[in-house]
Amino acid sequence: MHALLRRGAIGLALMGGGLLLCAIGLSLVSLVGRKLWAMPVPGDIEVLQMLVAVAVACFLPLCEINDHHIRVDILASLFPSCINRGLMVFSHLMLGVVSMVLLWRTALMMLDSHAYASQSTLLGVPLWIPQAAMLPGLALMGLCALSQAARHLTRPLPELEETA
Amino acid sequence: MMSGLDIGGLALGVLLLLLGLRLHVGVGMLVAGMVCYLLVNEGDTSALLFTINNLVYTRFSSYDLAVIPLFVLMGQFAIHGGLSRALFRASATWIGHWRGGLAMSAAGACAGFGAICGSSLATATTMSQVALPELERHHYGKRLATGTVAAAGTLGILIPPSVPLIVYAVLTQVSIAKLFMAAILPGIVAVLGYFVVIRIMAMKTMRDVERAPKHSWAERLTSLREIAPVLLIFGVVIFGLYGGWANLTEAASIGAAACGVYAAWRGGMRGDGLYRSLLGTAEATAMIYLVVIGADLLNSGLALSQLPFELADWASGSGLAPLTVLLLILLIYLVLGCVMDSLSMILLTIPIFFPIIMQLDLFGLTGPEKAIWFGIVALMVVEIGLITPPMGMNLFIVQKYSRNTSLGTVSRGIVPFLGADMVRIAVVVFVPALSLAWLG
Amino acid sequence: ATTLRIAHFLPSVSNIQKNVLEPWCAELKTRSEDELRCQIYPSMQLGGTPAQLADMARNGVVDIAWTALGYSAGRFPRSETLELPFMLPAGGVTANRIIWEFTQRYAQDDFKEYKVLAVHTDGGTAFHTRNTPIRGAGDMKGLRMRASTRMASQVIDALGGAPVSMPPAQIADTLSKGVIDGAALSWEVVLPAKLDEVTRFHSDTRADQTSPTITVLALLMNKRRYDRLPDEQKQVLDALSGAALSQRAGVAWDKAIAEARQTVASDPTQTLVTLDDAAHDAMRQATQPIVDRWANSTEGGIDRPALITGLQGIVAEQAPELK
Ligand code: NA
Ligand code: NA
Known about the structure:
The complex is a heterotrimer of chains A (164), B (440) and C (323). With 164 residues, chain A is mainly alpha-helical.
């Protein structure tokens, strides 16, 4: 299960990376077009914003499955290992809950954008499209967090550190 | 009814508790922000839920923040393209034969790498791998070697581009281009400070250290050709930006593309390099944005509670000298820096401290000048957090890459560099012209 | 005491905050004997985007929001009448009297979920260009013009220009780089957006001519929050809001507009163009299809032609000399 989630997270992150490369290409084409032919790509800014928003959402699960989200570990060395284990379960569980809340509310926003036909200002791209594209990243981050919590619950800490 | 100070204070208390319990920083901030909203609205959840609706898309699609993944990718390309090694070799060719010269070369290479990488952790990581083995081979003591790389790694954010500066600019609506320009001179002062420390340490501790051979001028010029792309990329990004023909996003795109081309050309980056660059970018970016959305909710929650404004009123009406207030704030940064990372600190503290600073009369600076100058000062103090024990990320990184070295050794090695940093912070604080000189 | 949280999207030094909201809040405070206070959050300090401001007030994230109605496309359909081309005079005081009366008589249904504290104009649209003076209807052909609202972009389109949208902070920068040729904006923002440094020609309507289009701005309060105020506070708020507050905004705008025009007029490198009647008529002709298209829509079961007639009636009463 964990390995499957990791593969999913890597795949999603690579897709996000691809979107980021597209954003770079777009911004270069727009710059060159503007400089050489006074012809900027219309709506380059809003497209870049959408690309980066989706890309960042795609990046979230990988960071969680590798447990690299920022934490303050100052007190960790003071606690005995069983407490640390409990804290890690709690910490990943909280990220799982928060991911689900963000997923739920962002999905609501997407439905709202759809209902009111919100569009980007220049190109009129329906905003629900990029918003919907962010949902898989948020959902997978939640799953990865729950899987991390389950792993800490079922396996002792040293074993986890070796496999990390 | 609770006052703003009560609510804000309670939320910050909740945050500290959660962080102590090893919650992710972004999650802790989100929860503390929720506490703020619920208390301010007396349990009514509609305001909170509506704010969360917009939270993720609004922040992730922010045009100003979009440069962060671009700069992160640029740094990743530089790492996988072997740029760090080329930089270290080039500076060793020039100054490696001085007393302590190889350590200075490592510091110089960090500065060069910092000019195309927006993160200190990435700078410290790549330079540890390149410089530590060389320093060991030339019998540099562990303390000096690890201290140098850990301290000089902070040049990754001191020298633009810099992720914390971008975030500061977004929070305070100061021009990112101006902040980057303002950071250049203090960054150079930082490098010089590290050179002085290395020189003094070298005189005291390493009479028997093997000096690297002196290189001919022909060799030196050849070495420059190797790193010419770095200078070019930095020039394009910073001066193109300041000259006004590209905006920051475009400058960052040029930089990332140029580093990618360079990496491919140097042969250091085939399919595998690209794969690792993209995954590295994904992790670093995700790390930053999770904290950003947490801080976003916490900061609007604190603003709702009016804590920042009440604190600012209190500070300006307290009768304390403005300089005392400033020093108190810097002290808080130093204490926080012992346990928190730089980005979380900027995100957490700037919304609280910035209104206070803007109300104080400091050295007769105008509002916009003060905003830029304080950005540089804040950057310097949070950067110190990376190298203060017990929680200094750079210390951990350097220890990981230095064989058979304890954290204690690294921590002792960093002390003289911390001294140099303190002196530099004092200079930057009391000589605002250092940060404002090039801004006209 | 009650603290009202007011959010808007401009900096704290903007006309709306310095010359409208802050004096208004000061008066609320004195008249209510310190029972009503304000906390103003400028520059979207509470997060979100300007397009979300109206929703923020409706959902109670803030008590009061100042926003452009056009940011929330489709949510204030009746008030769109006010933005139709060549309907209202430029400037603040007279236009705001008309706007307030129209809102009260015809557009109440737009604001069912709010307590409306003020509705006012941005002062009307003038055309600020770099190299090409706009003297007649054909002069805009091919020019890339920044438009601030959907209606403004339709007007530019109808006049043959290419409408471009971008955040206000980028206008001066992109103008100076030649990415766009001009901007359709109220005089009120010329100085804060530094347009006087990057454009040379400013085409304007006379006092007795209608403006190409206006932007409708409004100060909206959360309805539940208003209903729960003690009666004395409601009375103070009512006395200082509505027509009175809209007039306060009108005065502040007229002052800012006069100042901007003065600055530009006294600068020898700048040219002020006033549209003559023929050019004004030609532009109105060119934009008539926009009005017709809008009037023919029956979306939401709204009788749009009646709204137009109603507005024209009020204009004829309040500004009889207007062409
Ligand atoms: Na840097
Ligand atoms: Na530290």
